[in-house]
Write a structure and sequence with these properties.
Layout (H helix, E strand, L loop, with lengths): L2 H17 L9 H13 L1 H5 L1
Helix pairs in contact: 1-2
Length: 48
C-alpha cells in the first residue's frame, strides 16, 4: 500500500469518527480528516 492510500484511509476514518456523536476537545476531527484527504490528493504534486 502506498503512502497516498494510507492517507486516504486515515482521512476516511477521521471523517467517520467526526460523524459520530462523540465530543472531542480542542480538535475538529472533520477538519483533520479533510486535511488528510487534501494531503493524499496532492501527494503526487508534493513529492514530484
Amino acid at each position: 500500500m502506498s503512502i497516498q492510500g494510507l492517507f486516504y484511509i486515515i482521512a476516511v476514518i477521521l471523517l467517520v469518527l467526526a460523524a459520530l456523536p462523540i465530543g472531542t476537545r480542542g480538535i475538529s476531527l472533520a477538519l483533520l480528516g479533510a486535511a488528510f484527504a487534501l494531503l493524499a490528493y496532492s501527494w503526487d504534486t508534493i513529492t514530484a
